[in-house]
Amino acid sequence: MTIVLAFAFSYLLGSIPTAVWLGKWLHGKDVREFGSKNAGATNSFRILGKRTGIVVLVIDIFKGVLSMIISKHMLHDESVVLVMLAAGICILGHVFPVFAQFRGGKGVATSLGVFLGFNPSTALVCILVFLVVFLISRYVSLASITAASTLPFISYFVFDQRMLAFVCFNVIISLLVIIAHHKNIKRLIAGEEQRMNFNASKM
User: Fold this and answer.
1) Percent of the chain, pLDDT > 70?
2) Which CA distances in Å does 200 have to 44, 68, 135, 187?
3) Nearest Cα to Cα of residue 35 among 166, 196, 167
4) Which ranges of the chain does DSSP label H, i.e. alpha helix?
5) For residue 67, how far is the Cα from the chain centroid?
6) Which of 8, 46, 136, 188 has its CA 20 to 30 A from that of 164?
């Protein structure tokens, strides 16, 4: 029963549609009807402005961190695999939120939160990779895809985390984020992807 409760909590926590709710409450907009039509931090920056975008980003990251903390507590670290499953379910909740007609974000911020709570060293290196690619290209999607792609390799080769459960978890999260960006990948290939311009974002 504890395992079921931990999984249910993780999914419901991940399902909190930060961008959707804040967009409606503060701006009278459903962020999914504008821009990239995605309920994530990047589209929130573009549609709802910098301040709301930052709040969305922070809360979505915190969802992942809190999921890890609560799951570890509920499961008493009895099984690393169960904790990782709970974390994955939280990310799935963000991508397919029950509170927002299963139309959520792409899981990047919540995945980052999961790794900050689960494996901070790997998370910090992925953040560095993201920032380097983003500052060079100004494509949030490209930076996210690159960071997600390097995640399993950073964990395996840099931090020597070679337990099969860790490897599988990292690969699954990486693939989930990349698949969620499939439309962005098509736009990048076609040269139609929009660069982030913070100066143009609303306050």
Assistant:
1) 96
2) 13, 35, 16, 21
3) 196
4) 2-14, 18-27, 41-48, 50-75, 80-95, 108-118, 120-137, 140-153, 164-180, 182-190
5) 13
6) 8
pTM (predicted TM-score): 0.89
C-alpha distance across the termini of the chain, in Å: 46
Mean pLDDT of the chain: 90
Residue keyed to tokens 């504008």: 34
Domain boundaries, the chain: 2-200
Q: How far apart are CA 86 and CA 10, in angstroms?
A: 6
What residue ranges in the chain does DSSP mark as E strands? Answer: none
Q: How far is 181 from 139, CA to CA, in rounded Å? A: 12
Contact (CB, 8 A) for 31 and 44: yes
Q: Which amino acid is at 174?
A: S
The pair of structure tokens assigned to 55 is 């709040």
Cα distances (Å, whole numbers) of residue 3 to 66, 94, 164, 170: 16, 20, 21, 21
90 phi, psi to nearest 5 deg: -60, -45
